[in-house]
Amino acid sequence: MVKWMRAAGAALLALGLALAAPRAADAALVEVTFNASGLWELEPGTVPPPTPPFGTDPNPVLTGTALLDNARSGEDALLAFSMVTGGKTWSLASGLLFFSVEFAGDGSVRDLFIGLGGADGFLILGGEAGSRIGATLSLAQMAGGVGQGMVTLSCNDCLLIESRVLPVPTPAALALFGMGLIGLGAARRLVRRAA
C-alpha cells in the first residue's frame, strides 16, 4: 500500500509539473535581439567633412534588444528598447516616432519596424525576423545648424532581427500545480498515518 501511495504521489507531482510548465503558446512576452553588420553607406549633409551620426564608427557592428508583449497591439506592445550607436543610447525615452509589429502564430515576431528620435536625429530599423534580406537600419543626425542637412548612416540587408518567446505559466496551470502539491501533501499524510 505504501509503495502504491508513493507511486501515486510521484505521478501527481509529475502531472502537476507537466501541466504547470511554461509553454510558448501561453506566453505574452517576447525578447527581440538586433544585430546589424555589413556594408554601411554614409550620406553627408551639406557640411563637409561628414562624420557618422553620434560618433558611430563608419562601419559599425550594432546590437540592441527590445521587449514586446504579444497580448497587446500597436505602440502598447513595445515595452522596452535599447541600442547604443556611438555616443547615443536609444530607448523609449528617445521618443517613439512609429512602431509596427506582426506576430507569428507561435507568438514570435514576424515583422518589426521601430522609429525613435526627434529633430536632432533618429534611428529606424525594420524588416522580417530571421532574415537580413530587406532589413534596414538608418541613423540620422543634423549636420550643424538648421538648414545644414542631415548626415545619415544606413545599411540595407544587414539587420538580423531574432525573437524568443519568454515562457510564462498561465494562471490555470499554476492552479493545477497548486492542487497537485495539495494532493501530494494529503497522500503523504495518509502514508504516515498508515505506517
UniProtKB/TrEMBL annotation:
Alphabetic keyword roster: Membrane, Signal, Transmembrane, Transmembrane helix
Species this chain originates from: Neoroseomonas alkaliterrae
Bilayer-spanning residue ranges: 172-191
Region forming the signal peptide: 1-27
Protein name: PEP-CTERM protein-sorting domain-containing protein
Domain of life: Bacteria
Entry keyword Signal: yes
Presence of the UniProt keyword Signal in the record: yes
